[in-house]
Amino acid sequence: MPPDDVRRHRRARSSEVISSPANQVVRLVRALGRRKAREETGQFVVEGERGLADALDAGVRPHVIVVRDDYVAGTDRLDALLAGDEVDVRRLDTALFDDLCETVHPQGILGVLPLPAATALPDDATLVVYLDGIRDPGNMGTLLRSSAAAGADAVLVGSGSVDPYNAKVVRSAMGAHFRIPILAADTVPMERLQALPIRAIAEADADRTYDGVDWRQPSLLIVGSEAVGPGETGRALANLAIAIPMTSGVESLNAGVAGSIVLFEIARQRRIGSPRALK
Amino acid sequence: MPPDDVRRHRRARSSEVISSPANQVVRLVRALGRRKAREETGQFVVEGERGLADALDAGVRPHVIVVRDDYVAGTDRLDALLAGDEVDVRRLDTALFDDLCETVHPQGILGVLPLPAATALPDDATLVVYLDGIRDPGNMGTLLRSSAAAGADAVLVGSGSVDPYNAKVVRSAMGAHFRIPILAADTVPMERLQALPIRAIAEADADRTYDGVDWRQPSLLIVGSEAVGPGETGRALANLAIAIPMTSGVESLNAGVAGSIVLFEIARQRRIGSPRALK
Q: Which of A204, A205, A237 lies closest to A221, judged by CA?
């Protein structure tokens, strides 16, 4: 729904409490639970105050904000936003709102936001993360969050991965969507990635340890699924396999945690200006 | 339910398909969803083949194994176990089994296991993890799994934390329960912990970076909740606050990931035999 269309009716509607599941905004939010609808409309849903604050911090203006009938803004900024003219606000019947949310204990506020424009890989990128076959939304969210926090320049999402704009991913990424470019891997020319001197793939049985790499060089970190590892594209790109040594052969880590450990080793080396002596 | 009690009726019952929710084993499994019942009976439930394999690897014998009517063992070992005499096996009606499971897509097998005996802190412990106020089961599971994988000697669980034998914790810890001693923090004398020279608490705004500590010394790592940080006991124990530097002030990590990053920096220093030069 284009914002202009919505705004025209704002004043008339904003004080009404919507209780019909057939309402246009209700149907839009529900439709955005599906990847296809997100891609077709170029919008996605962010639930909760923290998520919306992250969007506002990044200068992203919601197309519509939907609040539960009993919602009281938890921050002055949200309060001002709801009272002001800038954003279309709709008020929903309590049961209808809760039913619409994917969270178990909804905070009573959600926003429909524009999908970040698909930007190109930054020219000067020195740390790119390639998520290849990450199907678990929690792991995807963790990896987006850790990538942003560790200072990566972009995250590429391979075709076998969960949609990064899935509601569970958005929730666990805690605003990373607004702080790091997220690109479909197949929109980035392979030559750009092949030009990065370190192209490391995390694999449980690799000989090289993850901290035995000089990560100060421009790097691509490829993280695959816990169950089956990275896909063909990831494997074709890699020129190095790395492992995280663990106490016993039985141990393993999930892809979100393993990827985060490597990302912060990269950040650590770049911060202190040297890797440990390479073997 | 003591195993002997069960075993007496095994042969007669194991070929029957149980369909009554009032069945004694069904009621036991359901009751074990509550912490109180776990503590009173000294048992907990492990769902899925991987979890049961971890228990068997650790030499833990299930008191009862419950399978769904259509279950076919995915490994030879489980197949042999189900066919053999060693463990009491019950077969449940499909709908009843699925209703009993906390997982969304149950694999069709679960076991009732003895709670690991509360052991004391190992005398020669050089890395102890103190989880103080970790309420999210996923984070607790991650921290148990990372503690085992990074070579910690024990995990202490503070009173404000989720029960480590909660089904979600057990699921996400991927067998760590059988590989590392997990103790209630209040069973360990404070003097034992105060004797560890490094007692570090993870805090977002600490001046000291997590990699600027010589972790080769005997250490206590205190991890608190993402929302409110560690509790009073954790704070009282700490002699050092550490932070994980991040790209921008906006960023943060969840307690499970942050704790894992510190744990693997500790493992890294101990493996390579030196920390980076301390500031």
A: A237
pLDDT digit string, tens, across residues A261-277:
999 999 999 998 876 54
Residue B57: closest C-alpha in chain A: A250
The residues on B that touch A, with CB distances below 8 Å, are: 54, 57, 138, 142, 145-146, 148-151, 174-175, 179, 209, 211, 244-248, 250-254, 256-257, 260-261, 264-265, 267-268, 271-272, 274, 276
Instruction: Enter the tokens of residue A143.
Output: 């990896």
CATH number of the A3-114 domain: 3.30.1330.30
pTM of the predicted model, to two decimals? Answer: 0.89
SS3 content of chain B, % helix, strand, coil (to 5): 35, 20, 45
> Between chains, do A272 and B148 touch, taking CB under 8 Å as contact?
no
C-alpha to C-alpha distance for B275 and B270, rounded to whole angstroms: 8
Alpha-carbon distance of A11 to B233, in angstroms, equals: 53
Question: Quick one: fold of B127-272?
Answer: Alpha/beta knot (3.40.1280)
Q: Where are the domains of chain B?
A: 3-114, 127-272
Å between B142 CA and nearest CA of chain A: 8
ipTM score above 0.85: yes
